[in-house]
Write a structure and sequence with these properties.
Helices cover about 70% and strands about 0% of the residues. The longest helix is centred in the N-terminal third of the chain and has 37 residues. It has two domains: about 70 residues, no CATH class; about 375 residues, no CATH class. It is mostly helical. The protein starts with 5 loop residues before the first helix and ends in a 7-residue tail after the last helix.
């Protein structure tokens, strides 16, 4: 007999899956969606919002015993699954801090400063601008900007859940709105910037906006370009490799819930489950390594599972946005989103031109895409200005990201908790101090370069084959 719970869950995931399929086909056919590179999950989420209960009421999303829609609860579990994947899987040989600075010091300090800056200056902007102008704003409102912009839908869900546990009603909806607007700013704004840069001679590897691979526009990869999703690390005769990896991820999430409940009963305080999931994943991978089976957890497969979870998280998150809450905070949200966009643009122009040893625009557009949308979106933007992937920008980002990720995780785990407890000035000063420290350290350890946006920098001419950009 099918349990009462499984029917609505299956129905809701079936509806959102259908919307994802329809959205991907629309993206494959509609030129506007192709040329703007809008992710399929966002289209699906918007369709869910429009055709869902808040507008047309056509989609039969399930309702629970309290009368609220179950789709409001799914993102909180999906974000636990997502964070459970972050430290699972065999990784390549670690690079030391010294090695990171030697290979990608400018990228490391630039992107780390962007995280510190967006979080720190968002808190400052909230204190000196938003709250004086809009006295009705709840405490901690401004941190939903970096939660959505630099964090994305996963971080927005995690932080929104924490803020709602402290009584900030509607935080999840605001966080989802922030992340959705951020991605749209990243996609549309990024393409505008690239078109401007090619006309002004800031780009090094393209003179005009290059034709992207057709697969990146249509969403379907031709047979000759298709790649493997990962390795079969165990024998399919014993257990399907995908089952093995999915089981590990779900087991990690369940353990995280159990550990969080135990800690809450022991300490008497609520512990963010996504943080516990992160640490649980790291612990399970460590134990697997100790018993010599850690190498059978393929990082690429786990990453694909995390990406799959993210797609559903984005779709459900947007579909579940409370339009009433967003409209209530419409004016401060517009001002806040404008600040986030201008801050990121300012970081590109005033810091990126000086801190980057070469390919300043290519490195800056990666930061812009990441700080407004997602890592995946930043890679799309870099691919436009570096079609052959010869600049080394993505490689440097990959080298530096592992160290940056630990700082980002610490910020996401600690800052919302402190702010909601009324401790705002201290984390704000630490974050802003970290922003300036990154810039100073980069100048001391890597160098400070010509602010001219068109003058060639060391190493560019060799990579360009000696061609000079006019």
């Amino acid at each position: 007999m099918v349990s009462g719970l499984s029917i609505p869950v299956l129905a809701d995931f079936g509806i959102i899956s259908t919307l994802i399929l329809i959205s991907h086909l629309l993206r494959n056919r509609i030129k506007l969606l192709q040329n703007t590179y809008v992710p399929t999950a966002i289209i699906a989420g918007l369709l869910g919002l429009i055709f869902g209960p808040q507008f047309l009421g056509i989609l039969p999303f399930s309702v629970n015993a309290t009368g609220s829609y179950n789709i409001n609860t799914y993102p909180s579990f999906l974000v636990v699954l997502l964070f459970a994947t972050l430290f699972l899987g065999k990784r390549k040989k670690k690079i030391s801090i010294k090695g990171t600075i030697e290979h990608a010091g400018d990228t490391f300090f630039f992107n780390l400063s962007s995280i510190f800056g967006q979080w720190g200056f968002s808190l400052l902007f909230g204190l000196i601008c938003l709250h004086p102008l809009f006295s009705y704003l709840p405490h901690g409102f401004s941190i939903l900007l970096p939660a959505g912009f630099v964090g994305g839908h996963g971080t927005a869900a995690a932080i929104g859940t924490v803020l709602e546990s402290y009584g900030l009603e509607g935080a999840l909806s605001i966080g989802y709105a922030s992340a959705t607007v951020g991605i749209l700013v990243g996609v549309l704004g990024g393409m505008i910037l690239i078109n401007l840069a090619t006309r002004l001679g800031w780009t090094r590897l393209v003179q005009t906006v290059a034709e992207m691979p057709l697969s990146m526009k249509t969403g379907f990869v031709p047979e000759e370009e298709q790649q493997s999703m990962g390795k079969e690390t165990i024998s399919p005769i014993a257990l399907d490799p995908l089952t093995w990896h999915i089981a590990i991820v779900f087991a990690t999430a369940v353990f995280a819930y159990r550990i969080a409940a135990f800690l809450q009963s022991l300490l008497g305080i609520s512990v963010p489950i996504f943080c516990v999931a992160l640490l649980t994943g790291a612990l399970i991978q460590k134990l697997m390594n100790v018993i010599k089976i850690g190498r059978y957890i393929d990082r690429h497969v786990v990453h694909r599972i995390g990406s799959m979870v993210t797609d559903f998280l984005v779709a459900f998150g947007i579909a579940a946005i409370s339009v009433k809450v967003v409209l209530h905070y419409a004016l401060p949200l517009i001002i806040m989103f404008a600040f986030g966009t201008l801050f990121t643009l300012g970081l590109m122009w005033f810091v990126g031109r000086r801190i980057c040893r070469n390919f300043w625009f290519e490195r800056s557009i990666l930061m812009f895409g990441w700080n407004t949308g997602s890592v995946a979106m930043s890679m799309v933007l870099v691919r436009v200005v570096d079609p052959e992937m010869i600049s080394g920008v993505l490689e440097d980002f990959g080298i530096s990201y592992f160290g940056i990720a630990f700082v980002e995780i610490a910020i996401v785990s600690l800052v919302p908790q402190l702010v909601m407890k009324g401790i705002t000035i201290l984390p704000m000063l630490v974050l802003i101090g970290g922003f300036f420290a990154c810039i100073v350290l980069s100048r001391a350890m890597v160098g400070w370069f010509s602010p001219s946006p068109t003058v060639l920098r060391p190493g560019e001419a060799e990579i360009m084959g000696g061609a000079v950009v006019e």
